[in-house]
Specification:
By secondary structure, the protein is α+β, with helices and mostly antiparallel strands. It has five helices and 19 strands. It has helices at residues 24-33, 93-102, 182-192, 219-226, 250-259, and strands spanning 4-5, 8-9, 13-21, 42-43, 49-54, 59-64, 82-90, 113-118, 128-135, 145-151, 169-178, 198-201, 204-209, 212-217, 239-247, 265-270, 275-278, 285-288, 297-302. The strands form three sheets. A nine-stranded mixed beta sheet has the order 12-13-14-11-15-19-18-16-17.
């Protein structure tokens, strides 16, 4: 969880959000084709609906809405399809909010907001999962949002039956954002997590979030890494372009993608320099293009 230790706020990723708008049915089927176990559809008190793919300490959320709820969705949850949301773990959201305000972090000034959704446990019961969130000021998060999420009922999210995936995925590893000025774009995170370790990488900067990583790279570096696998650009602002997941077996990933007719590329990669080259014989990662994921490059790497 995000903890307050000697007044330090430490970054730990809770989940990522993939906006799919009115295409929840298609997204759910597609992510099953990608080898994920998806949860039964949930319905938030805010009007949005979702399917989750649950990992060890994180999850991926397919977030959209059903047609009858289209007019109910808060504009703050409406984005072009793609990898739009990054949530950090929070504990005691009200205490965390006060600490963030005191250190002048770039967050919204309305305080934590609470919402819930009934969870279909498959046995005829629908207990409510409750959350509190603290949002970053949207000025700093174009094409999406960054927020803290206080999971008040984690036992209704991290259920073992939902953590077994045909593709062997165990956790999120890295989120890559394309930014024309990586230093300026990572600055809000640096203000929020002043003790976080930030390093220079090829084409940008990396923030270490416990055992996970947040990369901000230039468009030129993104093109070099992913080329035609990238989604078409909607505007000139920052956008989250890629998600790297850890899997127990690249062979499992390859098998399920081949079986379901999902195109992919096998690559070797120099992780320090981020230089990837096609190499079928010695693949260290499998890349699925943005056209298959609702708007971002999905990468599988072996643990």
């Amino acid at each position: 969880m995000t903890r307050l230790i000697s007044k330090q706020i430490l970054p730990q990723i809770d989940h990522v959000v993939v906006t799919v708008s009115a295409q929840l049915d298609n997204a759910d089927l597609q992510y099953q084709k990608l080898g994920f176990t998806t949860t039964p559809r949930g319905h938030h008190s805010l009007g949005t609906s979702n399917h989750l793919t649950i990992f060890g300490t994180t999850y991926l959320e397919l977030l959209g809405y059903e047609p009858q709820n289209s007019d109910k969705i808060d504009s703050r949850w409406r984005f072009d399809n793609g990898l739009t949301g990054l949530a950090f773990k929070a504990n005691q959201a009200d205490v965390l909010y006060d600490a963030l305000i005191k250190q002048d972090a770039p967050i919204e000034g309305d305080g934590p907001s609470a919402f819930f959704r009934p969870v279909d446990l498959g046995n005829g019961t629908f207990p409510e999962a409750h959350f509190k969130i603290i949002r970053f000021d949207p000025t700093y998060t174009p094409n999406g949002q960054i927020f803290f999420c206080d999971q008040l009922t984690p036992e209704l999210v991290w259920r073992k039956a939902w953590q077994k995936h045909a593709n062997g995925v165990t956790n999120i590893y890295r989120i890559i954002t394309e930014a024309r000025d990586p230093a300026a774009s990572i600055a809000p995170l640096k203000r929020t997590f002043p003790t976080a370790h930030i390093t220079t990488i090829e084409g940008g900067l990396r923030l270490e979030a416990a055992d996970k990583q947040l990369d901000y790279i230039t468009p030129e570096a993104a093109e070099k890494l992913f080329g035609d696998a990238l989604a078409d650009r909607q505007n000139e602002q920052d956008r989250k372009i890629a998600l790297i997941l850890k899997t127990r077996s690249l062979n499992k990933v390859k098998h399920v993608l081949t079986k379901n007719g999902v195109p992919f590329i096998e690559q070797t990669i120099d992780d320090d320099k981020q230089n990837a080259t096609p190499n079928t014989a010695q693949a260290k990662q499998i890349v699925v293009p943005a056209q298959e994921t609702f708007g971002f490059v999905l990468i599988f790497q072996a643990e």
